[in-house]
Design a protein that fits this description.
The complex is a heterodimer of chains A (290) and B (224).
Chain A: E1 5-11, E2 17-22, E3 28-35, E4 38-43, E5 47-54, E6 61-68, E7 71-78, E8 86-93, E9 98-104, E10 107-112, E11 116-119, E12 125-129, E13 131-137, E14 143-146, E15 149-155, E16 161-173, E17 179-192, E18 198-201, E19 204-214, E20 219-222, E21 229-235, E22 239-242, E23 251-254, E24 257-262, E25 267-273, E26 277-281, H1 283-288
Parallel strand pairs in A: 3-7, 3-9, 4-8, 4-10, 9-11, 10-12, 11-13, 12-14, 13-15, 14-16, 15-16, 16-17, 17-18, 17-19, 18-20, 19-25, 20-26, 21-25, 22-26
Antiparallel strand pairs in A: 1-6, 2-5, 5-8, 6-7, 21-24, 23-24
Chain B: H1 2-7, H2 10-14, H3 20-32, H4 34-51, H5 63-69, E1 77-78, H6 89-114, H7 134-159, H8 165-191, H9 196-222
Helix pairs in contact in B: 3-4, 4-6, 6-7, 6-9, 7-9, 8-9
């Protein structure tokens, strides 16, 4: 049986805590805070620095850092009563997988080269980097990701979702907000909003599958010259337009829907907007869009 | 997740519209997924029934207009204004049933995979081996949906006190947005019951609400 080793348990009162300890490759870091922001940056040292600041001079606030089964756990707790509010600033090795949770607060990560899970309820999530499983979510706050690669899942409920300059499978969703995927290289993309625009720009890869849907918003897709893709268009009361030449070899028509083929059609691009516009354009034109 | 991917493509599989590679992959999935096998069997039954129906000829072909509009150069096609054509109604009706069957299966699968309440309290159940008629498949899907919504609502309501009031307001506002989308889709289906896209869309929107309710219920149970 593995026993947890306590690295630090000390008061956060007054000026807070600033501690640095060694980390071994293969360890992951888990940080949970009820109320307060989390900011993580990376360095090339095999060490973790934790800076924690209590919101108020709370004599009951305690910083708790422990290590067990390859997981370094960081949290703040009150001696009695609810978890105190605290702001965390961490510096970690770029290789260290991260699991970050907050209920009330923003989460920011810069420069990671590892798996990341970041979840908050009321707050934004902003991540640069991430390799492998990258899962970011909020309920009432925006989610932004750039320079990630791997299996990407990004979602919120009541704000926008943005992914830029990333590669891998991408699932992105919101209810009330826009979803933008810009310069995303992927063979599997699933994007969904209910009340907001949906935008995708990136190479359409042979054999890839791309699904972009919204209810009350526009769908805009940048399609590169020479793409081999079967495009399926679905709308109820919206419209469809294209700024690119469409070479139609086959067609399949259903009521309120139609499809056409570009090149050999090996990729599948499904575009749906119940009552908005669906537009195809060249990637350069996409970037010029507001 | 894999089941969701293939569930959405079973109709194409039954219609023989998948590529050889996709067919191989889907059949490999079917060997290990009883639910998808069941849905595929249902689809074959409905497809055979549909094939026996007489075919209608569309009143007029809209394709020339669409073709002209999407030829090089920017143009737009306001679908709603150009949609009063009557396509192959019997086949579309059959397709609508396929979607109803799929939606029932999809919701059931979603509930199976993501249930946040004990299964015993759910009235959701898998599609029957062979739908006796068209109506029960659709009705079953609606019953499944209603039951899932009611169950998840109950979980959310019981945990509402543990959620921050701002979070509750945000969730309720967004549930209302999804409800509005569901209502739009239901109205659209009522106005055009044979529309494949609309039936599919309605099922997807209903599932979106289930997902959001599940997320809300999970939050209500998790927050302290």
């Amino acid at each position: 049986m593995l026993l947890a080793s306590l690295l630090l348990l000390s008061s956060l009162a007054a000026q807070g805590q600033d501690t640095t300890f060694a980390a071994t490759r293969g360890e992951r870091l888990r940080l949970g805070v009820h109320e307060g922001s989390i900011t993580v940056s990376t360095w090339d040292r095999n060490a973790v620095r934790v800076q924690a600041e209590p919101e108020d001079d709370d004599d009951d606030a305690r910083l708790d850092i422990s290590r067990s089964a390859g997981v370094i756990s960081v949290s703040v707790r009150g001696r009695n009563g609810p978890p105190p509010e605290a702001t965390f600033t961490l510096t970690v090795p770029a290789w260290m997988p991260l699991s970050l949770n907050s209920v009330e607060g923003d989460i920011t990560v810069r420069g990671s080269a590892a798996a990341i899970t970041a979840e908050t309820v009321n707050g934004s999530v902003s991540v640069t980097g991430g390799v492998g499983n990258v899962s970011l979510s909020s309920v009432d706050g925006s989610v932004e990701l750039s320079r990630a690669s791997g299996n990407i899942s990004v979602s919120t409920v009541n704000d926008d979702v943005t992914v830029r300059n990333s590669t891998g499978t991408v699932a992105a969703s919101t209810v009330n907000g826009e979803v933008t995927l810009d310069a995303v290289t992927s063979s599997a993309v699933s994007v969904e909003s209910v009340n907001g625009d949906v935008r995708f720009s990136g190479p359409i890869r042979n054999g890839g599958r791309y699904q972009l849907n919204t209810h009350n918003g526009d769908v805009t897709v940048g399609v590169q010259s020479g793409a081999n893709v079967t495009v399926l268009v679905n709308t109820f009361s919206g419209d469809f337009s294209t700024d690119i030449p469409v070479e139609i070899r086959t067609r399949k028509r259903q009521d309120g829907s139609f499809s056409f083929v570009l090149g050999d059609g090996s990729a599948r691009l499904e575009l749906g907007s119940f009552q908005g516009s669906i537009q195809l354009m060249r990637p350069g034109q996409f970037r010029d869009q507001p | 997740m894999a089941a969701d991917i293939w569930t959405d493509r079973l109709s194409e599989y039954v219609d023989g519209e998948l590529t050889a590679g996709e067919t191989t992959a889907l059949e490999a999935h079917l060997t290990g997924c009883a639910e998808c096998r069941q849905i595929a069997d249902d689809l074959r039954v409905v497809a055979r029934t549909a094939a026996a129906l007489p075919a209608d000829t569309p009143g007029r072909d809209l394709w020339p207009g669409i073709f002209d509009a999407i030829a090089p150069g920017k143009s737009a096609i306001p679908f709603r204004q150009r949609r009063p054509w009557h396509a192959n109604v019997p086949r579309l009706a059959a397709a609508a049933v396929l979607i109803a069957t799929l939606s029932g299966g999809s919701v059931w699968l979603a509930m199976r995979q993501r249930a946040v309440v004990p299964p015993a309290t759910l009235s959701a159940r898998p599609p029957s081996a062979t739908p006796a008629t068209v109506i029960p498949a659709s009705a079953r899907a609606e019953r499944t949906y209603d039951a899932a919504v009611a169950d998840l609502r109950a979980v959310l309501d019981s945990g509402r006190g543990r959620l921050d009031s701002t979070t509750v307001a945000v969730l309720e506002r967004n549930l209302a947005i999804v409800d509005s989308a569901v209502a739009d889709a239901q109205r659209a289906v009522r106005s055009d019951p044979n529309n494949v896209y609309l039936n599919t869309y309605l099922a997807r929107t209903m599932r979106r609400k289930i997902d959001l309710l599940r997320q809300a219920a999970t939050l209500a149970r998790a927050e302290t």
